[in-house]
Specification:
Belongs to the anoctamin family. The chain is mainly alpha-helical. Helices cover about 55% and strands about 5% of the residues. Strands 2-3-1-6 form a four-stranded antiparallel β-sheet. Strands 4-5 form a two-stranded antiparallel sheet. It has a two-stranded antiparallel sheet with strand order 7-8.
Length: about 900
C-alpha cells in the first residue's frame, strides 16, 4: 500500500482520476457489502486503499493532521528494535496518558516513512488543554490595545530607511497591553480565533511542558518518578521529540493555512546579503521563543556598538600611519650613523652572534603603528566604551522585557524542575519545603566528594594548559637560536620586499603563535567533553544549575586557554632577563634556555602578532565549523530522500533528518562571543584594529547563526528568558579586568612611559623631542666579562643591551640607574591614575544611565494599573449579571446594585 501511494503522486492527471473513481467505487462497494453482511472482509481491503489515497490528497508538507484542521504541535518518533516489547509498552502507556490529559494523537506508520523504519506520532493540543496550561504557566495574552502614544520618531529618521525591513515583517501585530491568562475569565481577553490565539511557539512550549511531566507507567504502579519525555529519549523509547517547522525554508508552504514564517525568516534574516538590514527580532521571538530571541538581540546590539569602537580604533591606527615619518627613535635605529654603529649583545648563548641595531629597523617602524600616543587614548576610550555597551544593553534588555511580556517572568518554575538524571541517580528522598512533596536528594557527603573530584579535575586541566604554554615558551627559546643561525646566511635576506621583514624574532613569534593556536583548538575539543563529564558527575539538581556550573567551568578553561599566551607576551616576556654575564634561565642554567628579550622597539608588536593570529584563526575556524559541519551532516543524512518527490517527503520526516539544536546550543554561541569580547577589551591597547576585525566577524556571525538555525536544525522548543543570564556577570567582570590589563600594557609592554620620561626629564638639550632616545635607552657591557660557557664569537668593545644600568668601571656597575627607578615610578603612577580616571568615569556613566528607560517604566505602571482596573470592572459586571439572574429567578423586590469602589491598590500601582 505504501508503494501504491508513492506511485499515485507521480502519476498524471488521468491516472489520478482513475484512482478517484476506484476510491468512489470502493465506498459504494463497502456500502453494498455491509448490507450483505460481509463488513469485515470489505473494510480490510477498501479502507486500506481509501486511507492511502486520503493521505496523498492531504499535502504531506502541511503541519496539520489529515483532517487539515488540527495543527501538529509536536512530533515524537520511534524505531522498533530488539527490546521492542518493553519500549512498546512504555509508549502505549505514555501515549494513553497524554490522551487522558486532553492531547490528541495521530500516528504515521513506519510503512509510510522514507526509511521504512521510523514511526511518527503527531500531537495536537486542543483549546481546552491550551487554556488550562496557559493559566498554569501564567502566559501573558492581550486584553487591550496599547493606548500610550508611541514617540519613536527621531530626527533624520530617513537615514535609516535603507537598513529597515518592511513593516509587515518587523511589526506584524499591533501593540497590546497584556495580562496573565485566566481560563475562568477567558472573555476578558481579546480572543478572536481560538485556533490562532496562541502562536505556534507558545503551543509547542505548552505541549513540551505536558510531555515533560507525563508518566509512562500505569497509575497503579508505585514509582511516580517514571515520567517525562527526556527519560524516554534517554532510554531509547523514542528517538526524537521536536516541534515542526511550518514550511521549507526556500519556499512557502503549499497549505494556505501555514504561516510560512520560516520562509520569511530565511528570506529577510538568514541570508548573507541581508547583512546590512536590521533583524526581525519580533518574528524571531515569535517563531523560536524569547530565549533565542534575546541572544540575537544581544548579538545584534553588540555588533552595533562595535561599530563605534571600530571607527575610533581605525582612526588611532591611521594616526599611527600618518605620524610614520615623525618617529624619531625609528629614524635613529635605521640611521647608519647611529643604528649602524651600535653593536648589540647576542640574544641567545653560543649560536647567536653580535648584531647591529639597524637590523630591527623594520620592526621599529611596524611597532609605531600601534605604539603611539593614540594608544593611551584608545585604551581609555575602550574602558568607557565597555561601560556604555553594558549600560545601554541593560536599557535595551529592559525594553525587550516589556515588549516581550517578560517583566514579571520568574525562573522559579525552571529552578524547581528536576533533571531526569538527578531523579535517576539520587535514590534517597526528603520533603521539599516549597512543593511539600517528597523528592530525591543527593547526600552531603556524596555531594562534597563529587565537588572535590570536580575541582581537582578542573585544576589538572588548567595545569595542563599552563604546561602547554610553558612548552611553547621553551619552543620559542630553543628555536630562536636555530633560526638565528639558519637565517644568518639565508637567501631570503636578499629579497627586496620581504627579505628585511623575515627576521629570527618574527619567524619565532609567528611559528610559536601558530603552534599555540593548534594546541588551543585541540585542548578545546578535549576539554569540552571533560567539562560535560565533570558537570554530569556533580549531578546538578536543575537545568538552570547545570547550565551555570557548565558555564563557569567552560569559561574558566577557555579564559586560561585563549588568553594565557597573550598574558605571557604582555606581562612576562622581556621582564626577567637579567643582563649580560648574569642572564636568567627558564629552568636554571642547566637548561640553557635563556629568557626571551624584547626588541628595542618593545614587545608590543609581538603581542599584536599573537593577538591577530589567535583571534583571527579562532573566528575563521569557528565560522567554517558552524556552517560547514551541520550542512555536511544534513547532506549525508538526507541523501536517500533526495531521489524522491518532495510530496513524499513529509514535513515531520524533513525535520527529523535535520540536526538537533541541543540544550547547550546557545551556550556555545554565547561562549564564542564572550571570548571574542575578551580579546577586544583585555588586550585592545596592543591592537586598535581588533574591534574592526570583530565587527566584520560578527556581521558574518549573525547571518551564519541565523542561517544555521533556520535551515540546518530542527525547530527548538520555545523557552522564556528575560536576560542573557550568567553571561552578564561575566561581561561585567571582564570589563573591570580590561581596565587593569590595558593600563599595564601601556605601562609595561609599550615604550610610551620611558619615552615620555626621557622627553620631559632626560633630554640633554632640554627640548621637547626624542633626539638621543636610543642611546639613552641602551646600556654598555664589557664583553671580556662574558662567561666562557655562553660567550659568542669574539667582537670589539663596547657592546650594548637594552636596559638602564651603570656602565663597566662605574662604582655601581651593572646596577640600575636612577632613571630606571624614575621610569618605574612613572609607570606605577600612570597605572594608578588611568585606573582611577577610567573607573570614576565608568561609575559616573553607570549612575547617569538608568537601567530601565523612563517610557518603559511608565508603560509598565500603566499596564499594571489597567490590569487592576479592567479586572475590577470585569468582576463588577459579572457580579451584576449574576445578581440580575438571581433576581429574575425569585419574586423578591428588585435590589439596588451597590456602587463598588475601585481597589485601593490602583493608587499604589501609579
Amino acid at each position: 500500500m505504501a508503494a501504491l501511494s508513492r506511485v499515485t503522486v507521480t502519476a498524471d492527471s488521468s491516472f489520478w482520476c482513475v484512482l478517484c473513481a476506484v476510491n468512489l467505487y470502493c465506498d459504494n462497494l463497502l456500502l453494498h457489502l455491509n448490507i450483505l453482511g460481509v463488513l469485515l472482509w470489505s473494510s480490510d481491503i477498501c479502507c486500506s486503499l481509501s486511507c492511502s489515497i486520503d493521505k496523498q490528497q492531504h499535502s504531506k508538507d502541511s503541519v496539520f493532521f489529515r483532517d487539515g484542521r488540527r495543527r501538529v504541535d509536536f512530533v515524537l518518533s520511534y524505531v522498533d528494535d530488539k527490546d521492542g516489547e518493553r519500549k512498546q509498552e512504555r509508549r502505549k502507556v505514555y501515549e494513553a496518558n497524554l490522551e487522558n490529559v486532553g492531547l490528541e494523537l495521530e500516528t504515521e506508520d513506519k510503512s509510510e516513512s522514507e526509511d521504512g523504519k521510523t514511526s511518527f506520532v503527531k500531537i495536537h493540543a486542543p483549546w481546552e488543554v491550551l487554556a488550562t496550561y496557559a493559566d498554569v504557566l501564567k502566559i501573558k495574552v492581550p486584553f487591550k490595545v496599547n493606548d500610550i502614544p508611541d514617540n519613536k520618531d527621531t530626527p533624520m529618521n530617513w537615514l535609516s530607511t535603507p537598513f529597515r525591513l518592511p513593516d509587515h515583517i518587523m511589526h506584524p501585530e499591533p501593540d497590546y497591553f497584556t495580562a496573565p491568562f485566566n481560563k475562568s475569565k477567558s472573555d476578558f481577553f481579546l480572543i478572536d480565533n481560538q485556533e490562532t490565539f496562541f502562536p505556534p511557539s507558545t503551543r509547542n512550549r505548552i505541549v513540551y511542558y505536558i510531555l515533560s511531566r507525563c508518566s509512562y507507567l500505569k497509575d497503579e504502579c508505585p514509582d511516580k518518578d517514571k515520567k517525562g519525555i527526556k527519560r524516554l529519549l534517554n532510554n531509547g523509547t523514542y528517538t526524537a521529540a521536536f516541534p515542526l517547522h511550518d514550511s521549507r525554508y526556500w519556499t512557502r508552504s503549499r497549505d494556505p493555512n501555514c504561516e510560512s514564517e520560516r520562509y520569511n525568516l530565511y528570506k529577510h534574516w538568514a541570508r548573507f546579503f541581508c547583512f546590512f538590514k536590521e533583524q526581525p527580532l519580533d518574528l524571531v521571538r515569535k517563531y523560536y521563543g524569547e530565549k533565542i530571541g534575546i541572544y540575537f538581540a544581544w548579538l545584534g546590539f553588540y555588533t552595533e556598538m562595535l561599530f563605534f569602537a571600530a571607527v575610533v580604533g581605525t582612526i588611532c591606527f591611521i594616526y599611527g600611519f600618518l605620524t610614520y615619518d615623525d618617529n624619531q627613535w625609528s629614524k635613529e635605529i635605521c640611521s647608519e650613523a647611529i643604528g649602524g654603529n651600535i653593536v648589540m649583545c647576542p640574544l641567545c648563548d653560543k649560536k647567536c652572534g653580535y648584531w647591529k641595531l639597524i637590523t630591527t629597523c623594520n620592526s621599529s617602524w611596524q611597532s609605531h603603528l600601534f605604539d603611539n600616543v593614540a594608544t593611551v587614548f584608545f585604551a581609555i576610550f575602550m574602558g568607557i566604551w565597555v561601560t556604555l555597551f553594558l549600560e545601554f544593553w541593560k536599557r535595551r534588555q529592559a525594553r525587550l522585557e516589556y515588549e516581550w511580556d517578560l517583566v514579571d517572568f520568574e525562573e522559579e518554575q525552571q529552578q524547581l524542575q528536576l533533571r531526569p538524571e538527578y531523579e535517576t541517580k539520587c535514590s534517597k528522598r526528603k520533603l521539599n519545603r516549597i512543593t511539600q512533596e517528597m523528592e530525591p536528594y543527593l547526600p552531603i557527603t556524596s555531594k562534597c566528594a563529587r565537588l572535590c573530584l570536580s575541582g581537582a579535575t578542573v585544576l589538572f586541566w588548567i595545569s595542563l594548559i599552563i604546561a602547554c604554554i610553558i612548552g611553547v615558551i621553551a619552543y620559542r627559546l630553543a628555536v630562536y637560536a636555530a633560526f638565528a643561525s639558519i637565517m644568518k646566511d639565508s637567501p631570503t635576506a636578499h629579497l627586496q620586499v620581504v627579505g628585511p621583514l623575515i627576521t629570527p624574532q618574527l619567524a619565532t613569534s609567528v611559528t610559536a603563535s601558530c603552534i599555540n593556536f593548534v594546541i588551543i583548538m585541540i585542548l578545546n575539543l578535549m576539554y569540552e567533553k571533560v567539562a560535560i563529564w565533570i558537570t554530569d558527575m556533580e549531578i546538578p539538581k536543575t537545568h538552570l544549575e547545570y547550565e551555570n556550573k557548565l558555564t563557569v567551568k567552560m569559561f574558566l578553561f577557555q579564559f586560561v586557554n585563549y588568553y594565557s599566551s597573550c598574558f605571557y607576551v604582555a606581562f612576562f616576556k622581556g621582564k626577567f632577563v637579567g643582563y649580560p654575564g648574569n642572564y636568567i634561565y627558564m629552568f636554571g642554567e642547566w637548561s640553557k634556555l635563556r629568557n626571551e628579550e624584547c626588541d628595542p622597539g618593545g614587545c608590543l608588536i609581538e603581542l599584536t602578532t599573537q593577538l591577530v593570529i589567535v583571534m583571527t584563526g579562532k573566528q575563521v575556524w569557528g565560522n567554517i565549523q558552524e556552517a560547514l559541519v551541520p550542512w555536511l551532516r544534513n547532506w549525508w543524512g538526507s541523501r536517500k530522500a533526495r531521489s524522491h518527490p518532495e510530496s513524499l517527503y513529509s514535513r515531520w520526516e524533513q525535520d527529523y533528518d535535520l540536526q538537533v539544536f541541543g540544550q547547550l546550543g546557545l551556550f556555545q554561541e554565547y561562549l564564542e562571543m564572550v571570548i571574542q569580547f575578551g580579546f577586544i577589551t583585555l588586550f585592545v591597547a596592543s591592537f586598535p584594529l581588533a574591534p574592526l576585525l570583530a565587527l566584520f566577524n560578527n556581521i558574518i556571525e549573525v547571518r551564519v547563526d541565523s542561517w544555521k538555525l533556520t535551515t540546518q536544525f530542527r525547530r527548538p522548543v520555545a523557552a522564556k528568558a528575560h536576560s542573557i543570564g550568567a553571561w552578564q556577570e561575566i561581561l561585567n567582570g571582564m570589563a573591570i579586568l580590561s581596565v587593569v590589563t590595558n593600563a599595564f600594557i601601556v605601562a609595561f609592554t609599550s615604550d610610551m612611559i620611558p619615552r615620555l620620561v626621557y622627553m620631559y626629564a632626560y633630554q640633554p638639550d632640554g627640548e621637547m623631542n626624542m633626539k638621543g632616545y636610543i642611546n639613552n635607552s641602551l646600556s654598555v657591557f664589557n664583553i671580556s666579562e662574558f662567561p666562557e660557557a655562553n660567550s659568542p664569537e669574539d667582537g670589539e668593545n663596547p657592546f650594548w643591551y637594552r636596559d638602564y644600568r651603570y656602565p663597566p668601571g662605574h662604582q655601581k656597575q651593572y646596577t640600575h640607574t636612577m632613571q630606571f627607578w624614575h621610569i618605574l615610578a612613572a609607570k606605577l603612577a600612570f597605572i594608578i591614575i588611568m585606573e582611577h580616571v577610567v573607573f570614576l568615569v565608568k561609575f559616573f556613566v553607570a549612575w547617569m544611565i538608568p537601567d530601565v528607560p523612563s517610557d518603559v517604566r511608565a508603560r509598565i505602571k500603566r499596564e499594571r494599573y489597567l490590569v487592576q482596573e479592567y479586572l475590577h470592572d470585569y468582576e463588577v459586571e459579572r457580579l451584576k449579571n449574576q445578581l440580575s439572574q438571581n433576581a429574575n429567578d425569585c419574586t423578591c423586590a428588585p435590589m439596588i446594585y451597590p456602587s463598588l469602589p475601585k481597589h485601593e491598590v490602583l493608587s499604589e500601582c501609579l
